[in-house]
Protein backbone atom coordinates (compact mmCIF):
# COMPACT_ATOMS: atom_id res chain seq x y z
CA UNK A 1 0.00 0.00 0.00
CA UNK A 2 2.24 2.80 1.31
CA UNK A 3 4.69 1.80 -1.37
CA UNK A 4 2.67 3.29 -4.19
CA UNK A 5 2.67 6.70 -2.57
CA UNK A 6 6.47 6.73 -2.57
CA UNK A 7 6.64 6.84 -6.34
CA UNK A 8 4.43 9.77 -7.17
CA UNK A 9 3.39 10.46 -10.75
CA UNK A 10 4.16 14.17 -10.48
CA UNK A 11 7.69 13.45 -9.33
CA UNK A 12 8.16 10.99 -12.18
CA UNK A 13 7.03 13.57 -14.71
CA UNK A 14 9.57 16.00 -13.22
CA UNK A 15 12.41 13.55 -13.57
CA UNK A 16 11.50 12.67 -17.13
CA UNK A 17 11.47 16.34 -18.01
CA UNK A 18 14.87 16.82 -16.35
CA UNK A 19 16.29 13.76 -18.08
CA UNK A 20 14.96 14.84 -21.46
CA UNK A 21 17.21 17.90 -21.22
CA UNK A 22 20.30 15.77 -20.66
CA UNK A 23 22.27 14.73 -23.69
CA UNK A 24 21.70 11.07 -24.59
CA UNK A 25 25.44 10.42 -24.76
CA UNK A 26 26.06 12.25 -21.50
CA UNK A 27 25.73 11.21 -17.90
CA UNK A 28 23.37 8.34 -17.24
CA UNK A 29 22.20 9.88 -13.99
CA UNK A 30 18.78 11.33 -13.48
CA UNK A 31 20.22 13.45 -10.69
CA UNK A 32 16.90 13.57 -8.88
CA UNK A 33 15.32 12.26 -5.70
CA UNK A 34 14.22 8.78 -4.84
CA UNK A 35 10.55 9.67 -5.05
CA UNK A 36 11.02 9.90 -8.81
CA UNK A 37 11.42 6.19 -9.32
CA UNK A 38 8.32 4.44 -10.51
CA UNK A 39 8.96 0.77 -10.21
CA UNK A 40 5.64 -0.63 -11.19
CA UNK A 41 6.19 -4.37 -10.89
CA UNK A 42 2.54 -5.32 -11.31
CA UNK A 43 3.08 -7.84 -14.12
CA UNK A 44 6.43 -8.98 -12.80
CA UNK A 45 7.34 -12.23 -11.14
CA UNK A 46 10.64 -12.68 -9.34
CA UNK A 47 10.00 -16.42 -9.34
CA UNK A 48 9.93 -17.07 -13.11
CA UNK A 49 11.44 -15.17 -16.01
CA UNK A 50 9.90 -14.99 -19.47
CA UNK A 51 11.65 -16.86 -22.26
CA UNK A 52 11.83 -16.93 -26.05
CA UNK A 53 8.86 -18.56 -27.76
CA UNK A 54 9.26 -19.90 -31.27
CA UNK A 55 5.78 -18.80 -32.50
CA UNK A 56 6.43 -15.17 -31.62
CA UNK A 57 9.99 -15.19 -32.92
CA UNK A 58 10.98 -13.92 -36.34
CA UNK A 59 14.34 -13.84 -38.04
CA UNK A 60 15.89 -10.54 -39.10
CA UNK A 61 14.86 -10.12 -42.77
CA UNK A 62 17.54 -10.48 -45.47
CA UNK A 63 20.12 -11.55 -42.95
CA UNK A 64 21.92 -14.62 -41.77
CA UNK A 65 22.39 -15.49 -38.10
CA UNK A 66 26.07 -15.92 -37.26
CA UNK A 67 26.44 -16.19 -33.49
CA UNK A 68 24.21 -16.38 -30.42
CA UNK A 69 25.47 -15.35 -26.99
CA UNK A 70 23.21 -16.19 -24.06
CA UNK A 71 23.74 -14.84 -20.55
CA UNK A 72 21.47 -16.36 -17.91
CA UNK A 73 20.76 -16.10 -14.22
CA UNK A 74 20.63 -19.45 -12.41
CA UNK A 75 17.18 -20.84 -11.60
CA UNK A 76 15.25 -20.99 -8.34
CA UNK A 77 17.54 -21.61 -5.38
CA UNK A 78 17.59 -21.97 -1.64
CA UNK A 79 18.40 -18.86 0.41
CA UNK A 80 21.98 -17.69 0.87
CA UNK A 81 21.19 -15.71 4.02
CA UNK A 82 20.47 -17.88 7.03
CA UNK A 83 18.11 -17.29 9.92
CA UNK A 84 18.99 -19.17 13.10
CA UNK A 85 16.45 -21.76 14.31
CA UNK A 86 14.71 -21.79 10.93
CA UNK A 87 12.29 -24.71 10.84
CA UNK A 88 11.58 -24.40 7.10
CA UNK A 89 12.21 -27.57 5.11
CA UNK A 90 13.96 -27.36 1.76
CA UNK A 91 14.21 -30.49 -0.32
CA UNK A 92 16.61 -30.98 -3.19
CA UNK A 93 16.21 -34.70 -3.68
CA UNK A 94 15.82 -34.38 -7.43
CA UNK A 95 19.22 -32.78 -7.85
CA UNK A 96 21.98 -35.28 -8.19
CA UNK A 97 25.54 -34.38 -8.65
CA UNK A 98 27.79 -37.02 -10.02
CA UNK A 99 31.30 -36.65 -8.83
CA UNK A 100 34.22 -37.73 -10.93
CA UNK A 101 37.16 -38.31 -8.69
CA UNK A 102 39.53 -39.84 -11.17
CA UNK A 103 41.24 -37.93 -13.92
CA UNK A 104 41.31 -38.37 -17.66
CA UNK A 105 44.40 -40.53 -17.34
CA UNK A 106 41.97 -43.36 -16.62
CA UNK A 107 39.46 -42.99 -19.47
CA UNK A 108 38.73 -46.71 -19.40
CA UNK A 109 36.91 -46.21 -16.10
CA UNK A 110 33.29 -45.33 -16.71
CA UNK A 111 32.82 -42.31 -14.51
CA UNK A 112 29.05 -41.92 -14.86
CA UNK A 113 27.36 -42.51 -11.54
CA UNK A 114 30.48 -43.50 -9.66
CA UNK A 115 29.72 -41.22 -6.78
CA UNK A 116 27.05 -38.69 -5.91
CA UNK A 117 26.90 -35.82 -3.50
CA UNK A 118 24.40 -35.87 -0.65
CA UNK A 119 23.76 -32.83 1.54
CA UNK A 120 23.28 -33.88 5.13
CA UNK A 121 21.74 -31.60 7.74
CA UNK A 122 21.84 -33.46 11.04
CA UNK A 123 19.44 -32.99 13.90
CA UNK A 124 20.77 -30.18 16.04
CA UNK A 125 22.96 -31.28 18.89
CA UNK A 126 23.66 -28.33 21.16
CA UNK A 127 26.80 -29.89 22.63
CA UNK A 128 28.80 -30.32 19.46
CA UNK A 129 26.76 -29.22 16.47
CA UNK A 130 25.85 -26.01 14.61
CA UNK A 131 22.91 -27.20 12.56
CA UNK A 132 20.41 -24.78 14.15
CA UNK A 133 22.13 -22.19 11.91
CA UNK A 134 20.47 -23.69 8.82
CA UNK A 135 17.05 -25.04 7.85
CA UNK A 136 15.87 -28.67 7.76
CA UNK A 137 15.87 -30.87 4.67
CA UNK A 138 18.34 -31.91 2.01
CA UNK A 139 19.53 -28.68 0.38
CA UNK A 140 22.80 -26.85 0.56
CA UNK A 141 22.86 -23.07 1.02
CA UNK A 142 22.23 -21.33 -2.30
CA UNK A 143 21.61 -24.62 -4.09
CA UNK A 144 19.60 -24.87 -7.29
CA UNK A 145 16.23 -26.45 -6.42
CA UNK A 146 14.17 -28.85 -8.50
CA UNK A 147 12.13 -25.81 -9.62
CA UNK A 148 15.32 -24.08 -10.68
CA UNK A 149 16.42 -27.07 -12.67
CA UNK A 150 13.01 -27.26 -14.38
CA UNK A 151 13.21 -23.54 -15.27
CA UNK A 152 16.46 -24.06 -17.12
CA UNK A 153 15.18 -27.20 -18.83
CA UNK A 154 12.21 -25.16 -20.04
CA UNK A 155 14.52 -22.40 -21.23
CA UNK A 156 16.71 -24.95 -23.03
CA UNK A 157 13.74 -26.47 -24.83
CA UNK A 158 12.49 -23.01 -25.84
CA UNK A 159 15.90 -22.12 -27.24
CA UNK A 160 15.80 -25.38 -29.14
CA UNK A 161 12.39 -24.40 -30.53
CA UNK A 162 13.87 -21.17 -31.90
CA UNK A 163 17.46 -21.94 -32.88
CA UNK A 164 17.14 -25.61 -33.88
CA UNK A 165 13.55 -26.18 -35.01
CA UNK A 166 12.64 -22.78 -36.40
CA UNK A 167 15.91 -21.39 -37.74
CA UNK A 168 17.93 -24.56 -38.22
CA UNK A 169 20.85 -22.50 -36.93
CA UNK A 170 22.01 -24.90 -34.23
CA UNK A 171 22.38 -28.61 -35.09
CA UNK A 172 19.59 -30.85 -33.92
CA UNK A 173 22.18 -33.15 -32.42
CA UNK A 174 25.45 -32.03 -31.04
CA UNK A 175 28.35 -33.62 -32.84
CA UNK A 176 31.36 -33.17 -30.65
CA UNK A 177 31.48 -29.89 -28.76
CA UNK A 178 32.95 -27.41 -31.25
CA UNK A 179 29.60 -25.67 -31.81
CA UNK A 180 29.36 -24.33 -28.30
CA UNK A 181 31.31 -22.54 -25.62
CA UNK A 182 30.00 -22.71 -22.05
CA UNK A 183 31.13 -20.70 -19.09
CA UNK A 184 29.63 -20.53 -15.61
CA UNK A 185 30.71 -18.95 -12.35
CA UNK A 186 32.52 -21.23 -9.94
CA UNK A 187 29.30 -21.63 -7.95
CA UNK A 188 27.44 -24.92 -8.04
CA UNK A 189 23.99 -23.54 -8.93
CA UNK A 190 25.21 -21.82 -12.10
CA UNK A 191 26.88 -25.03 -13.30
CA UNK A 192 23.72 -27.01 -12.55
CA UNK A 193 21.65 -24.40 -14.38
CA UNK A 194 23.86 -24.67 -17.47
CA UNK A 195 23.65 -28.47 -17.36
CA UNK A 196 19.86 -28.35 -17.14
CA UNK A 197 19.57 -25.86 -20.00
CA UNK A 198 21.93 -27.77 -22.29
CA UNK A 199 20.34 -31.09 -21.36
CA UNK A 200 17.05 -29.83 -22.80
CA UNK A 201 18.59 -27.95 -25.72
CA UNK A 202 20.16 -31.22 -26.86
CA UNK A 203 18.16 -33.93 -25.11
CA UNK A 204 19.71 -36.83 -26.96
CA UNK A 205 23.36 -36.89 -26.27
CA UNK A 206 25.89 -39.58 -25.79
CA UNK A 207 27.36 -39.71 -22.31
CA UNK A 208 30.75 -40.88 -23.49
CA UNK A 209 33.71 -38.91 -22.12
CA UNK A 210 34.52 -37.54 -25.63
CA UNK A 211 31.03 -36.00 -25.92
CA UNK A 212 31.24 -34.28 -22.54
CA UNK A 213 30.60 -30.55 -22.95
CA UNK A 214 33.36 -28.52 -21.29
CA UNK A 215 31.93 -26.13 -18.70
CA UNK A 216 34.54 -23.43 -18.23
CA UNK A 217 34.90 -21.69 -14.90
CA UNK A 218 37.39 -19.17 -13.62
CA UNK A 219 38.72 -19.61 -10.10
CA UNK A 220 36.76 -17.45 -7.66
CA UNK A 221 39.69 -15.09 -7.11
CA UNK A 222 39.72 -14.03 -10.78
CA UNK A 223 35.98 -14.28 -11.50
CA UNK A 224 34.68 -11.59 -13.89
CA UNK A 225 31.03 -12.60 -14.23
CA UNK A 226 30.03 -10.40 -11.29
CA UNK A 227 31.62 -7.57 -9.36
CA UNK A 228 34.68 -9.22 -7.82
CA UNK A 229 35.36 -7.08 -4.77
CA UNK A 230 38.31 -9.27 -3.77
CA UNK A 231 40.15 -8.59 -7.02
CA UNK A 232 38.77 -5.08 -7.34
CA UNK A 233 38.79 -3.14 -4.04
CA UNK A 234 37.79 0.02 -5.91
CA UNK A 235 34.31 -1.50 -6.31
CA UNK A 236 33.83 -1.37 -2.56
CA UNK A 237 35.02 2.22 -2.48
CA UNK A 238 32.63 3.32 -5.24
CA UNK A 239 29.76 1.36 -3.67
CA UNK A 240 30.36 3.29 -0.44
CA UNK A 241 30.24 6.61 -2.32
CA UNK A 242 26.98 5.61 -3.96
CA UNK A 243 25.50 4.35 -0.70
CA UNK A 244 26.54 7.50 1.16
CA UNK A 245 25.00 9.81 -1.42
CA UNK A 246 22.15 12.01 -0.18
CA UNK A 247 19.72 10.35 -2.53
CA UNK A 248 20.45 6.85 -1.32
CA UNK A 249 20.49 7.92 2.32
CA UNK A 250 17.09 9.61 1.81
CA UNK A 251 15.83 6.40 0.32
CA UNK A 252 17.14 4.30 3.23
CA UNK A 253 15.62 6.76 5.71
CA UNK A 254 12.25 6.62 3.99
CA UNK A 255 12.34 2.83 4.35
CA UNK A 256 13.87 2.88 7.83
CA UNK A 257 10.81 1.66 9.76
CA UNK A 258 10.46 -1.40 7.51
CA UNK A 259 14.16 -2.16 7.78
CA UNK A 260 14.07 -1.85 11.57
CA UNK A 261 11.11 -4.20 11.73
CA UNK A 262 12.85 -6.80 9.56
CA UNK A 263 16.11 -6.54 11.51
CA UNK A 264 14.10 -7.26 14.64
CA UNK A 265 12.32 -10.27 13.19
CA UNK A 266 15.35 -11.78 11.49
CA UNK A 267 17.74 -10.92 14.34
CA UNK A 268 20.49 -9.91 11.92
CA UNK A 269 23.20 -7.31 12.27
CA UNK A 270 26.03 -5.82 10.26
CA UNK A 271 26.31 -3.00 7.75
CA UNK A 272 25.10 -5.05 4.78
CA UNK A 273 21.70 -5.35 6.51
CA UNK A 274 21.58 -1.59 7.14
CA UNK A 275 22.77 -0.36 3.73
CA UNK A 276 21.17 -2.76 1.31
CA UNK A 277 17.98 -4.65 0.52
CA UNK A 278 19.88 -7.48 -1.14
CA UNK A 279 19.77 -9.81 1.88
CA UNK A 280 16.10 -9.13 2.55
CA UNK A 281 15.03 -9.85 -1.01
CA UNK A 282 16.84 -13.20 -0.73
CA UNK A 283 15.09 -14.04 2.54
CA UNK A 284 11.56 -13.17 1.39
CA UNK A 285 11.64 -14.16 -2.28
CA UNK A 286 13.10 -17.63 -1.81
CA UNK A 287 10.24 -18.39 0.57
CA UNK A 288 7.53 -16.72 -1.52
CA UNK A 289 8.55 -18.65 -4.64
CA UNK A 290 7.92 -21.87 -2.72
CA UNK A 291 4.78 -20.82 -0.88
CA UNK A 292 6.71 -21.16 2.38
CA UNK A 293 5.79 -18.99 5.37
CA UNK A 294 7.58 -15.65 5.68
CA UNK A 295 9.84 -15.38 8.74
CA UNK A 296 8.36 -14.71 12.14
CA UNK A 297 9.96 -14.12 15.47
CA UNK A 298 8.73 -14.14 19.03
CA UNK A 299 11.63 -11.84 19.79
CA UNK A 300 10.15 -8.94 17.83
CA UNK A 301 6.84 -9.07 19.66
CA UNK A 302 8.41 -9.09 23.11
CA UNK A 303 8.38 -5.28 23.38
CA UNK A 304 4.87 -4.05 22.67
CA UNK A 305 1.73 -5.83 21.70
CA UNK A 306 1.48 -3.71 18.54
CA UNK A 307 4.83 -4.83 17.10
CA UNK A 308 4.06 -7.25 14.27
CA UNK A 309 5.55 -10.64 14.75
CA UNK A 310 5.90 -11.75 11.15
CA UNK A 311 7.08 -10.40 7.83
CA UNK A 312 3.85 -9.73 5.92
CA UNK A 313 3.10 -10.15 2.23
CA UNK A 314 2.98 -6.34 1.96
CA UNK A 315 6.41 -6.10 3.61
CA UNK A 316 7.73 -8.61 1.11
CA UNK A 317 6.35 -6.62 -1.83
CA UNK A 318 7.96 -3.44 -0.51
CA UNK A 319 11.29 -5.24 0.02
CA UNK A 320 11.16 -6.26 -3.61
CA UNK A 321 10.42 -2.73 -4.84
CA UNK A 322 13.23 -1.38 -2.69
CA UNK A 323 15.54 -3.94 -4.23
CA UNK A 324 14.53 -2.88 -7.77
CA UNK A 325 15.34 0.69 -6.84
CA UNK A 326 18.65 -0.18 -5.21
CA UNK A 327 20.02 -2.15 -8.17
CA UNK A 328 18.89 0.48 -10.65
CA UNK A 329 20.33 3.34 -8.64
CA UNK A 330 23.68 1.62 -8.10
CA UNK A 331 24.23 0.18 -11.56
CA UNK A 332 22.44 2.71 -13.77
CA UNK A 333 21.42 6.01 -12.24
CA UNK A 334 24.03 7.41 -9.85
CA UNK A 335 26.69 9.70 -11.38
CA UNK A 336 29.28 7.00 -10.53
CA UNK A 337 27.18 4.13 -11.93
CA UNK A 338 29.16 4.04 -15.14
CA UNK A 339 32.40 3.62 -13.15
CA UNK A 340 30.79 1.04 -10.89
CA UNK A 341 29.18 -1.01 -13.65
CA UNK A 342 32.36 -0.89 -15.74
CA UNK A 343 34.42 -2.38 -12.92
CA UNK A 344 31.67 -4.84 -11.94
CA UNK A 345 30.84 -6.33 -15.33
CA UNK A 346 33.02 -4.54 -17.90
CA UNK A 347 35.40 -7.47 -18.23
CA UNK A 348 32.52 -9.68 -19.28
CA UNK A 349 31.23 -7.01 -21.66
CA UNK A 350 34.71 -6.90 -23.19
CA UNK A 351 34.77 -10.69 -23.42
CA UNK A 352 31.42 -10.73 -25.23
CA UNK A 353 32.55 -7.96 -27.59
CA UNK A 354 35.86 -9.71 -28.34
CA UNK A 355 34.04 -12.97 -28.99
CA UNK A 356 31.95 -11.25 -31.68
CA UNK A 357 35.07 -9.70 -33.20
CA UNK A 358 36.91 -13.03 -33.15
CA UNK A 359 33.92 -14.69 -34.72
CA UNK A 360 33.82 -12.18 -37.56
CA UNK A 361 37.56 -12.64 -38.00
CA UNK A 362 36.99 -16.39 -38.35
CA UNK A 363 38.93 -17.22 -35.19
CA UNK A 364 36.24 -19.15 -33.34
CA UNK A 365 35.97 -22.21 -35.57
CA UNK A 366 32.44 -23.57 -35.89
CA UNK A 367 31.25 -22.03 -32.62
CA UNK A 368 27.63 -20.88 -32.89
CA UNK A 369 26.44 -20.62 -29.33
CA UNK A 370 28.12 -19.18 -26.27
CA UNK A 371 26.37 -19.69 -22.94
CA UNK A 372 27.30 -17.74 -19.81
CA UNK A 373 25.58 -18.89 -16.65
CA UNK A 374 25.71 -16.38 -13.81
CA UNK A 375 23.69 -14.48 -11.28
CA UNK A 376 21.35 -11.51 -10.78
CA UNK A 377 24.58 -9.60 -10.24
CA UNK A 378 25.67 -10.68 -13.73
CA UNK A 379 22.46 -9.81 -15.57
CA UNK A 380 21.51 -6.56 -13.79
CA UNK A 381 24.75 -4.66 -14.49
CA UNK A 382 24.66 -5.84 -18.12
CA UNK A 383 21.13 -4.45 -18.43
CA UNK A 384 22.25 -1.23 -16.76
CA UNK A 385 25.16 -0.87 -19.19
CA UNK A 386 22.70 -1.23 -22.05
CA UNK A 387 20.54 1.53 -20.44
CA UNK A 388 17.55 -0.80 -20.09
CA UNK A 389 14.17 0.71 -19.27
CA UNK A 390 12.88 0.78 -15.68
CA UNK A 391 10.67 -2.20 -16.40
CA UNK A 392 13.62 -4.19 -17.69
CA UNK A 393 15.66 -3.12 -14.67
CA UNK A 394 13.32 -4.91 -12.24
CA UNK A 395 15.42 -7.38 -10.26
CA UNK A 396 16.30 -10.16 -12.74
CA UNK A 397 13.92 -13.07 -12.05
CA UNK A 398 15.18 -16.62 -11.71
CA UNK A 399 16.41 -18.04 -15.03
CA UNK A 400 16.49 -14.59 -16.64
CA UNK A 401 17.97 -14.81 -20.11
CA UNK A 402 19.71 -12.16 -22.12
CA UNK A 403 20.32 -13.18 -25.72
CA UNK A 404 22.69 -11.35 -28.07
CA UNK A 405 22.27 -12.36 -31.71
CA UNK A 406 24.80 -11.39 -34.37
CA UNK A 407 23.30 -11.13 -37.87
CA UNK A 408 24.96 -10.51 -41.22
CA UNK A 409 22.85 -8.68 -43.79
CA UNK A 410 23.00 -9.61 -47.46
CA UNK A 411 24.76 -6.26 -48.08
CA UNK A 412 27.55 -7.44 -45.76
CA UNK A 413 26.72 -5.16 -42.81
CA UNK A 414 26.17 -6.61 -39.37
CA UNK A 415 23.46 -6.14 -36.74
CA UNK A 416 23.00 -7.11 -33.13
CA UNK A 417 19.64 -7.99 -31.65
CA UNK A 418 19.21 -8.11 -27.87
CA UNK A 419 16.38 -10.17 -26.41
CA UNK A 420 15.68 -10.15 -22.68
CA UNK A 421 13.35 -12.74 -21.19
CA UNK A 422 11.73 -13.33 -24.56
CA UNK A 423 11.27 -9.67 -25.63
CA UNK A 424 13.49 -7.32 -27.57
CA UNK A 425 15.19 -5.25 -24.87
CA UNK A 426 13.55 -1.85 -24.34
CA UNK A 427 15.74 1.08 -23.43
CA UNK A 428 14.97 4.10 -21.31
CA UNK A 429 12.92 6.35 -23.60
CA UNK A 430 15.25 9.29 -22.90
CA UNK A 431 18.42 7.30 -23.67
CA UNK A 432 17.35 5.39 -26.75
CA UNK A 433 20.81 4.99 -28.27
CA UNK A 434 19.77 2.19 -30.66
CA UNK A 435 16.88 -0.02 -31.71
CA UNK A 436 17.96 -3.30 -30.16
CA UNK A 437 15.81 -5.27 -32.59
CA UNK A 438 18.45 -4.46 -35.20
CA UNK A 439 21.34 -2.36 -33.92
CA UNK A 440 24.20 -1.70 -36.35
CA UNK A 441 27.31 -3.37 -34.96
CA UNK A 442 29.46 -0.21 -34.92
CA UNK A 443 26.80 1.66 -32.96
CA UNK A 444 26.57 -1.25 -30.55
CA UNK A 445 30.32 -1.29 -30.02
CA UNK A 446 30.41 2.47 -29.59
CA UNK A 447 27.85 2.34 -26.79
CA UNK A 448 29.52 -0.58 -25.01
CA UNK A 449 32.99 0.90 -25.24
CA UNK A 450 32.51 3.20 -22.25
CA UNK A 451 31.71 0.15 -20.14
CA UNK A 452 34.80 -1.81 -21.11
CA UNK A 453 37.79 -1.17 -18.85
CA UNK A 454 41.03 -0.28 -20.58
CA UNK A 455 43.27 -1.25 -17.69
CA UNK A 456 41.23 -3.05 -15.10
CA UNK A 457 44.05 -3.72 -12.64
CA UNK A 458 44.96 -0.03 -12.42
CA UNK A 459 41.35 1.10 -12.34
CA UNK A 460 40.53 -1.43 -9.59
CA UNK A 461 43.29 -0.34 -7.25
CA UNK A 462 41.63 1.56 -4.42
CA UNK A 463 43.12 4.89 -3.45
C1 LIG B 1 28.97 -46.10 -18.85
O1 LIG B 1 27.83 -46.18 -17.98
C2 LIG B 1 26.61 -45.88 -18.59
C3 LIG B 1 25.55 -45.86 -17.51
O2 LIG B 1 25.57 -47.03 -16.76
C4 LIG B 1 26.35 -46.89 -19.70
O3 LIG B 1 25.12 -46.60 -20.35
C5 LIG B 1 27.49 -46.83 -20.72
O4 LIG B 1 27.29 -47.80 -21.71
C6 LIG B 1 28.82 -47.05 -20.03
N1 LIG B 1 29.90 -46.82 -20.98
C7 LIG B 1 30.97 -47.60 -21.07
C8 LIG B 1 32.02 -47.20 -22.07
O5 LIG B 1 31.13 -48.59 -20.39
C1 LIG C 1 27.50 -36.42 -36.51
O1 LIG C 1 28.58 -37.32 -36.59
C2 LIG C 1 28.23 -38.61 -37.04
C3 LIG C 1 29.45 -39.52 -36.92
O2 LIG C 1 30.66 -38.80 -36.97
C4 LIG C 1 27.71 -38.53 -38.45
O3 LIG C 1 27.30 -39.80 -38.90
C5 LIG C 1 26.50 -37.58 -38.48
O4 LIG C 1 26.07 -37.37 -39.79
C6 LIG C 1 26.87 -36.23 -37.88
N1 LIG C 1 25.67 -35.42 -37.78
C7 LIG C 1 25.65 -34.12 -38.12
C8 LIG C 1 24.32 -33.41 -37.93
O5 LIG C 1 26.62 -33.52 -38.51
C1 LIG D 1 35.15 7.42 -13.26
O1 LIG D 1 35.58 7.09 -14.56
C2 LIG D 1 36.19 8.12 -15.26
C3 LIG D 1 36.54 7.61 -16.64
O2 LIG D 1 35.39 7.34 -17.36
C4 LIG D 1 37.42 8.59 -14.51
O3 LIG D 1 37.99 9.68 -15.19
C5 LIG D 1 37.05 8.99 -13.09
O4 LIG D 1 38.21 9.29 -12.37
C6 LIG D 1 36.31 7.86 -12.40
N1 LIG D 1 35.87 8.30 -11.11
C7 LIG D 1 36.06 7.57 -10.01
C8 LIG D 1 35.57 8.16 -8.73
O5 LIG D 1 36.58 6.48 -10.00
From TrEMBL:
<dbReference type="InterPro" id="IPR050645">
    <property type="entry name" value="Histidine_acid_phosphatase"/>
</dbReference>
<comment type="similarity">
    <text>Belongs to the histidine acid phosphatase family.</text>
</comment>
<dbReference type="Pfam" id="PF00328">
    <property type="entry name" value="His_Phos_2"/>
</dbReference>
<protein>
    <recommendedName>
        <fullName>Acid phosphatase</fullName>
    </recommendedName>
</protein>
<dbReference type="InterPro" id="IPR000560">
    <property type="entry name" value="His_Pase_clade-2"/>
</dbReference>
<keyword id="KW-0732">Signal</keyword>
<dbReference type="InterPro" id="IPR033379">
    <property type="entry name" value="Acid_Pase_AS"/>
</dbReference>
<dbReference type="GO" id="GO:0016791">
    <property type="term" value="F:phosphatase activity"/>
</dbReference>
<dbReference type="InterPro" id="IPR029033">
    <property type="entry name" value="His_PPase_superfam"/>
</dbReference>
<feature type="signal peptide">
    <location>
        <begin position="1"/>
        <end position="22"/>
    </location>
</feature>
Amino acid sequence: MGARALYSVAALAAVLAAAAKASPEGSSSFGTGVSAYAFDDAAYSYCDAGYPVSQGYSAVPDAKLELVQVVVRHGDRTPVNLIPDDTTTWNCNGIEENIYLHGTDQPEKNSTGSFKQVIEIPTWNKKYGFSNQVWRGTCDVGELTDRGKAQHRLLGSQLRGVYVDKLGFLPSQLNGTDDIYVRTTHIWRTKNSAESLLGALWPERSISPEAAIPIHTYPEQIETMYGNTGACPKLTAIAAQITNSDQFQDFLRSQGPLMAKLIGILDVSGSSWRNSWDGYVDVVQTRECHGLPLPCSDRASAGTSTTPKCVTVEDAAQVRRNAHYEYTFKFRDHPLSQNYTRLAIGSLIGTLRDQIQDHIAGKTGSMKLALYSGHDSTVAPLLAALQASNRNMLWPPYASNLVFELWKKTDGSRLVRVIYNGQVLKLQPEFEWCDLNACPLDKYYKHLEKYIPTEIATQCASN
